[in-house]
Amino acid sequence: MDKVGLNKLKLYGFNNLTKSLSFNLYDICYAKSDEDRKKYIEYINEQYNSERLTHILTTVTEMIGANVLNIAKQDYDPQGASVTLLISEEEVPLYVLDPSCNRGILTPTRENIVGHLDKSHVTVHTYPESHPQNEISTFRVDIDVSTCGTISPLKALNYLIDSFDSDIITIDYRVRGFTRDVDGYKHFIDHEINSIQNFICRRTIERYNLIDMNIYQSNIFHTKMKITDIDLPNYLFEINEEELGREEREAIIRKIDREMNEIFYGINVTNI
User: Fold this and answer.
1) Beta 168-176 vs 220-227: how paired, if at all?
2) Could you tell me how many helices (H) and strands (E) the chain has, helices first?
3) What is the torsion angle, in degrees rounded to the nearest 10, for the CA atoms of residue 163, residue 165, residue 169 and residue 174?
4) DSSP strand pairing (179-180 vs 81-88)
5) What is the pLDDT of residues 208-231, one digit of tens each?
6) How far are the Cα atoms of 41, 67, 142, 201 from residue 27, in angstroms, in the given order?
7) Which of 120, 130, 146, 163 is catalytic?
8) Structural domain contains residue 129
9) Which of 21, 80, 257, 268 has the highest CB neighbour number within 10 Å of its CB?
10) Do the Cβ atoms of 135 and 32 come closer than 8 Å?
11) Within a domain: residue 10?
């Protein structure tokens, strides 16, 4: 991406194109009892607490070539976590840095700083939840990476996918605004793209079924991904597959597959 588009052109002023990459990632799990579902939520909260999420987002910032100006993070009761990073394309000198910015250094006296959003930001929110009737639990992660200038969130696409064990992934990418070259000609995008799939590694594409819905004239790209194979042991929480009979295994797979299809297609499936 660094070798195409406006990087070869002389611009009039600042490249103010805004590139936004948004994820919804879903992990599906079968937890049979109320106690198991509670343990699953506790497990997810521990595995994806605000500290780990902060590490993931700071790594994203490094990968896209940006600089951290401020971090705000929070773990919620009873479940979930959020992290917000304010980032800049170039490093901001200390003498112009707003006093509210912590540059990613979180101390006990500054843990409750509220992050503000400027030209670029990275955010993550988690939503663990469980189905009240069919023993299915779902963990959702929402991630937004918004940049302005030549830095691109697409550079962190595969890292973000690999950072979560996801069964369903919904990705939105949009380029907004325009920038001008020295002749005053407007450029509404500064790189070639006709699908988000162009930037997803082959080994990931081979594991998922993918659907695209793109509006090329508006530089809006949407890709949905659903895991191809359901390997039952990967979805069982506190249960050994060997303890299950054939009919029970098949019934669990149907429940998992139904949950995935409802999320993937955005509809509730009525019992037949």
Assistant:
1) antiparallel
2) 5, 10
3) 0
4) unpaired
5) 999 999 999 999 999 999 999 999
6) 12, 30, 12, 20
7) 120
8) yes
9) 21
10) yes
11) no
Q: Which residues contact 66 (CB under 8 A, 6 or more apart)?
A: 87, 88, 89, 120, 147, 151
Q: Which of 20, 22, 82, 125 is catalytic?
A: 125
The domain in which residue 206 lies consists of 18-176+193-265
Q: How far apart are CA 83 and CA 105, in angstroms?
A: 14
Query: Which amino acid belongs to residue 209?
Result: N
- Is the dihedral angle over the CA atoms 184, 190, 192, 197 positive or is it negative? negative
What is the pLDDT of the chain when averaged over all its residues? Answer: 82
- Residue 89 makes CB contacts below 8 A (sequence gap 6+) with 65, 66, 67, 119, 120, 147, 148, 149, 150, 151
Give the tokens for residue 30. 């079968």
Greater confidence (202 vs 76) lies with 202
Residue bearing the bigger pLDDT, 110 or 46? 46
The DSSP element (H or E) to which 59 belongs, if any, is helix 50-63
Phi, psi values for residue 82, rounded to 5°: -140, 145
Domain count, the chain: 1
Please answer whether residues 30 and 239 qualify as being in contact, where contact means their C-beta atoms are separated by less than 8 angstroms: yes
CATH number for the domain spanning 129: value is: 3.60.90.10
Catalytic residue among 50, 88, 148, 163: 148
**253 touches 244 (CB < 8 A):** no
Query: Is 7 within the bounds of a domain?
Result: no
Active site residue 148: yes
146 catalytic per annotation: no
Decide if 120 is catalytic: yes
CB 8: neighbour CB atoms within 10 A? Answer: 8
Cα distance between residue 260 and residue 227, in whole Å: 9
